[in-house]
Amino acid sequence: MTRPIMKTNNTILLTILFLFYSGIASAQVLEPPAIEVTQQHTAVTVTWSLVPDALGYRLLYAPYPYTGADSIQSIDVGDKTALSAALWDGASFYVAVTAYDGSTSSNFSNIALFFLSAAPVLDPDVLPVVTGMDWYKPPVSVSWQWQLSGEVNPGYPVALYDIDLFDSPASLINSLKASGKKVICYFSAGSYENFREDKDRFDPAALGNLLDGWPDEQWLDIRSLNVAEIMVERLNLALQKGCDGVEPDNMDGYLNDSGFELTARDQLAFNKFIANEAHKRGLSVGLKNDLEQIPELVDFFDFSVNEQCHEFDECDALEPFIQAGKPVLNAEYLQKFSDDAHERQGLCNSANNAQFRTLVLPLDLDDSFRLSCF
How many angstroms separate the CA atoms of 5 and 95, rounded? Predict the structure, then answer.
């Protein structure tokens, strides 16, 4: 899978350091190469375009997370235009390439970031992953905005934005982060959406029944390793775009008419896999709904994203998140909460007593209105 260019503050810093490290002359005559990264489990290949008049190429690499100028290394690969390596589970690096002739070097290529994962294992009894990475852990009192459709309104004075992974360019994510906000990126982990850019990657055998009310979505067979690998790729995309965390949706297929005989243990295995893979990448991760399994999953997830617990009188099930010092980000959609100030005040009183972070929003999550209880 080709990885997009990483455009974060780390990339800007690496740009400067790569320039310095590769000793680029001021009078450049060589065009920079363009690189692509493909990966399969713990194997990675970096390829780059041929540069006219170049005698050879240097591949520069630095670990992710970036640890400083001393961590940048280079390999002179001669006149090759590809380099492959078998690395290890969790190997993660920034890479770039420069071309050289007898006296000068080109500017470096685009900088790519890759994160390698071993073949997925879905184990309902796995423990929370222990990594050397830190990740964003929102406080119980975090303020937030949730918008998944339409042009994102960046103007709310909140600490956290939850926006669509695929529809949000890296420039938007970086802009929100530059304003001091954390960015959570939404994707559906338990359903197939026929309009996503990776839709052709799914095994047809893993596609189940339509989701009630969502004609463009089908339940996924979460036991499928094909599905697990695509979700790893989506986590990699979140990492590359600069997201601080992810909101994987439809994490309760076993409770629905999915078209598959999914069990509670199947769901635990999948949900724990998603959480652990997110944390391996330094990404925060939220549990979407799946109230019945919160006792088994609260230690794996950093926050809850819940819809309509007040409407369906289910909010007590979310208390373990609050008790663990993790926020419950709750959205309610009933028209009475938006139309009737008295009803809304009752909702907000209940939410605030429970320490939930409750918003009244349109079902389309398009920012056509937003009413906050905090």
Answer: 10
Pairing relation of β-strands 207-211 and 182-188?
Answer: unpaired
CA dihedral sign of residues 78, 79, 81, 85 = negative
pTM of the model: 0.91
DSSP string for residues in 54-117: --EEEEEEEESS---GGG-EEEEEET-SEEEEE--TT-EEEEEEEEE-SS-BPPP---EEEE--
pLDDT at position 6 is 40
Backbone φ and ψ of 130, nearest 5°: -110, 120
Closest CA to 373 of 350, 365, 364: 350
Residues in the chain: 374
Summarize pLDDT for 260-319 with one digit per residue, the tens: 999 999 999 999 999 999 999 999 999 999 999 999 999 999 999 999 999 999 999 999
122 is written with which tokens?
A: 């879905």
Tell me the per-residue pLDDT of 90-103, one tens digit each, with 9 for 90 and over: 999 999 999 999 88
How does residue 154 score in pLDDT terms, banded at 50, 70 and 90?
Answer: very high
Q: Is 353 exposed, middle or buried (0-12, 13-18, 19+ CB in 10 A)?
A: exposed
CB 150 within 8 A of CB 367: yes
Of residues 7 and 80, more confidence is placed in 80
CB 298 within 8 A of CB 328: no
CA distance 8 to 6: 6
User: For residue 210, what are the β-bridge partners?
Assistant: 218
Torsion of CA 151, 338, 179, 354, to 10 degrees: -140
- Beta-carbon neighbour count of residue 124 at 10 Å? 16
Beta pairing, strands 35-40 & 43-48: antiparallel
Q: pLDDT tens-digit profile of 176-199?
A: 999 999 999 999 999 999 999 999
Burial class for 78, CB neighbours closer than 10 Å (0-12, 13-18, 19+): exposed
Q: Of the candidates 195, 198, 213, which has an alpha carbon nearest to the alpha carbon of residue 250? A: 213
CA distances from 60 to 45, 93, 112 (A): 14, 10, 11
Question: In a 10 Å sphere around its CB, with 0-12 CB exposed, 13-18 middle and 19+ buried, how is residue 199 labelled?
Answer: exposed
Tokens 């685009």 appear where?
110
